[in-house]
Structure to design on (712 residues):
């Protein structure tokens, strides 16, 4: 594995599409550089011509051969489609990348290293695979070691899936570093793992081991970290994915919670499950954790991307009034305000832990 | 797969051991007949000589060859050890059973069908494998179909693992059938699956799919079932296994809950997590489910196996006083009392569902 990856991102036919969100996440937040995008449907332009909000100036080229002049170390599969399988148009380009000895990085459900054609060709060239969703083995059963980490652990929880929990923690990490602290983002899903360069896709772990996986993540942070920022998954009240959320709540053993919510959303997508008032939602999480290992909700992260500036301000004020906690949209306004709240709460937590 | 299995149960060296609990569960509650036990350390005696509470008179023999005279269809691996691997002394006997074309039934974590020596020999004899812990594929994502089943669904929840949740539901099924109802026990763990002949070991399912697995189980009960009795797993407040429990709570979408507890137990085994008062524990489950799909706790199943008769009676009375719900030890006293409570609550539920 390269120490610093230089990514050629394969989005063939999807660069204009929302399924390229894996690519955009890595471009916007990744620690590794995106040196080129391979997509013949937009070759000749640059990413920021099409997607200014992604803040990436990489050139778009039409082939792996063209991308090689930008000296990539790795080919990143830049899509996350519903079935999690490789789009047919990608196959020939992945083979080209294997022949060029690029590392192949994929977050698909289908593991590319297990594909006989790919693995056969990789044997010849020496190319490596990183299927980021493949859980490490063995994952131990949860032991309680997470209760004894020296860091203050903060977990993102939320009212639904796909409301920006990952972005919230990445923005908080950025704000914390700018403020001179040593926060570490801990990735628990495929895009987060590509951004951070490590992590475990907890939704892919056998259910008996999901708490053990979360525990392993928080016990393995860099020793000089002071605040661990754990990416959230799912939602406690989500009928399909609630158990994954609870796995993070118990396994990462947070001290503090950041509650994430899309402003105005009334019920969980695809299910007739109403989202409670934010103060009740915060209390539900706190009450459940109080039985096992207490944690306190200290900030509300609102996603106001559907609202105009004025409505966003009002939604933020309403969330503060409802919960008595600081609220903000960290993508729209930066994360300084919420970072300050977390940082203060973390200091109190650390003081209490030292005293006990 | 045989329609009615006749089991030769392999416990070689473990018949006196608590690790043989898989064997005892199948003997005591199984729908399939145990015709012989293979264990050279106790050959010549019968199971009820050693373990009268198991209520099984099968002869103990020293080899697969000796067991064949009782015409078994299947060899059952009768142990559940910690690592979930095959004890070394079992290998030669499994090979003998494969050569005799017996079906090999195992609840180990290690799948026997994936063992090259076993599968190679089975190819020659035509023997089949049933690794009961292997999840069926594909398991769909939870869809909400569980909300629309015609049965009343009852889920066992509890204060800890290994307190007898499976036995409670099996005793309730027995009492319900004796009362002329049509309950169906739904197995969610390895021993339960062997007893029932079908089911899914939900703790072995990838966490994203655990609710879908539970949903599949309750949507697949026999159509003439009136009350579905879902075997519980883990405990909501268990730091390691709580997510598996929540998977059953959301995925099987129960109408009613039976709360199981070992009388006198103060905290979750191996963890410093106090068990709350039973009324609080019942309310915790109800409050969480109220956000998603409401369910009501209607009975307390106490395990009083550590107590004498008088202390057991007092513990049951105390549980009733604490919760205002009927309580009993269904293994000690039979399940009629709790079955009646569940049956009444189920009638109310069914009436309400018809009205809405």
């Amino acid at each position: 594995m390269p120490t610093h990856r230089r990514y050629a991102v394969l989005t063939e036919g999807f660069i204009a599409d929302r399924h390229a969100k894996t690519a955009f996440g890595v471009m916007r937040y990744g620690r590794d550089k995106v040196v080129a995008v391979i997509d013949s449907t937009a070759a000749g332009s640059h990413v920021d011509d099409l997607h200014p909000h992604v803040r990436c100036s990489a050139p778009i080229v039409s082939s792996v051969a063209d991308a090689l002049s930008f000296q990539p170390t790795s080919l990143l599969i830049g899509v996350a489609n519903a079935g999690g399988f490789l789009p047919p148009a990608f196959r020939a380009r992945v083979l080209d990348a294997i022949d060029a000895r690029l590392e192949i990085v994929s977050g698909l459900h289908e593991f590319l290293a297990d594909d006989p054609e790919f693995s056969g060709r990789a044997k010849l060239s020496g190319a490596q695979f990183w299927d980021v969703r493949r859980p490490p083995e063995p994952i131990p059963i949860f032991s309680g070691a997470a209760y004894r980490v020296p860091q203050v652990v903060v977990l993102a929880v939320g009212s639904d899936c796909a409301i920006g929990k990952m972005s919230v923690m990445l923005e908080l990490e950025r704000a914390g570093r700018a403020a001179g602290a040593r926060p570490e983002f801990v990735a628990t899903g495929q895009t987060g793992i590509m951004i951070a360069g490590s992590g475990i896709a907890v939704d892919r772990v056998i259910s008996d081991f999901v708490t053990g996986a979360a525990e392993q993540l928080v016990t393995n942070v860099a020793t000089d970290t002071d605040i661990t920022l754990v990416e959230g998954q799912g939602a406690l009240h989500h009928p399909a994915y609630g158990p994954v959320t609870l796995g993070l709540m118990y396994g990462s053993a947070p001290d503090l919670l950041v509650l994430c919510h899309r402003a105005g959303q009334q019920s969980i997508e695809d299910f007739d499950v109403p989202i409670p008032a934010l103060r009740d939602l915060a209390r539900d999480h706190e009450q459940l954790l109080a039985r096992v290992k207490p944690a306190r909700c200290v900030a509300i992260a609102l996603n106001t991307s559907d609202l105009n500036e004025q409505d966003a301000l009002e939604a933020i004020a309403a969330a503060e009034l409802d919960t008595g906690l600081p609220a903000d949209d960290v993508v729209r306004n930066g994360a300084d305000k919420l970072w300050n709240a977390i940082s203060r709460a973390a200091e109190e937590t650390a003081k209490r832990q030292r005293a006990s």
User: Anything to note?
Assistant: The two ends of chain A are 42 Å apart (CA to CA). Chain A is about 35% helix and 15% strand. The first strand of chain A starts at residue 6 and ends at 10.
